[in-house]
Amino acid sequence: MKYSLRKASIEDKKCIYDLKKNSNYKYVDEIWGWDETYQINDFNDSFIIEELTVIENEGNVIGFYQLSVHPDKINLTEIHIKPEFRGRGIGSELINAFITGARNQRKRLTLGSFKSNTRATELYHRLGFTIFDETATHYMMEIK
């Protein structure tokens, strides 16, 4: 599947929120109940434009990811792809590129995944991630 990447702009903010909401609503609602005001405030607090990249197909936004670079690790804070574009290898290809980049910098790549999102957790395991910690709701995973 062909796609392109570009740095996110402030004009992408609503689209990015909508993608994140679409991906996370089921899990958040099951665990805590969806509170739109809280979710918008939390999104605004974590919206770091410099860390965000938009994924496009034929000029249309189909996803985004957020990478946060730290001295000892790179954290994949978010990766969301529209449902109709999932299962086409986009996420795997991007994550493999992140793994290579982290290894080239001699850093580990970390991420968190809802425990109830078994599809994502299975993907991360297939790509070589292991669980290094967990909370009541999330697995914290890494690859070195």
TrEMBL record:
Name recorded for this polypeptide: GNAT family N-acetyltransferase
One example GO MF annotation: acyltransferase activity, transferring groups other than amino-acyl groups
Domain of life: Bacteria
Keyword Transferase appears in the UniProt entry: yes
Matches recorded under SUPFAM superfamilies: Acyl-CoA N-acyltransferases (Nat)
UniProt keyword annotations, A-Z: Transferase
Classification via Pfam families: Acetyltransf_1
UniProt domain N-acetyltransferase: residue ranges: 3-144
Organism: Candidatus Xianfuyuplasma coldseepsis
